[in-house]
Amino acid sequence: MAKKLVKYFVVDAFTESAFKGNPAAVCLLEYEKDEKWLQAVAAEFNISETCYLTPITTDVTSNPRFRLRWFTPVAEVKLCGHATLAASHTLFSNGLVNSDIIEFDTLSGILTAKKVPESVSNGEAKESFLIELDFPIVPMSEFSVDALSISKALNSTPIIDLKKTTTSGDLFVVFPSGKDVTELNPQFDEILKCPGRGVIVSGVAPPESGFDFYSRFFCPKLGINEDPVCGSAHCALAPYWSKKLGKCDFMAYQASPRSGILDIHLDEQNQRVLLRGKAVTVMEGSILV
Predict the structure, then answer these.
(1) Cross-referenced InterPro entries, in alphabetical order (predicted)?
(2) Looking at the annotation, which residues are catalytic?
């Protein structure tokens, strides 16, 4: 009997343009595979995230539900925004679900994705759509550490605030301006020596930019020097900037070389972050082994 091939798609998330945003490989499984295989395939793709979708049959909900797991080239992670957006885009765009809402069973609990039609412009309906992800807030705590070692890893850029996420242990570093975020040339060898998993840097956006804040995310410990657009980091960024800017709705810009745009709503009462974005499929194929 011939071996069943595994269909995959590579999707650029949080962008309208191919080769921008953050790429993720989306693999469609009929049944669970062993972790050694999952990690080996992620290492083979060697992009920031490879995710795996397995259909779940359940009476709990009328919405389609999938098991969703995310792997970097070296490890499984508990939460990933851009690969969830990529997975949702794959399911919606290829007619693999007959619903505008998808539920994902993940290491961070049940997450939902909603297909949101774009506003009509000039009386003409657009075929494209946004995807809204419903994610949990990532809490942060104060972090006492020698800021000099952190600053050294970040080209001695002045640090005006320093915290740590409580879920993944990422350092959360605030610069005086978004311009500092854009111009940063990180020292990855020094970032590897920093405490925690990765480093989120952020600063308030220039007034003329049309954005509220800029950010970047560095995670060489997980094989990703710079994550082009990190949805999960914005689950910490949104509540932080909500307190600083006094608002709950944001346009955020991730200032990586590939760049990305996120439309964000903070639901403080329910401790949720709604991330809206677009995605583009750039390739598809089959895994033969």
Answers:
(1) Phenazine_PhzF-like
(2) 49
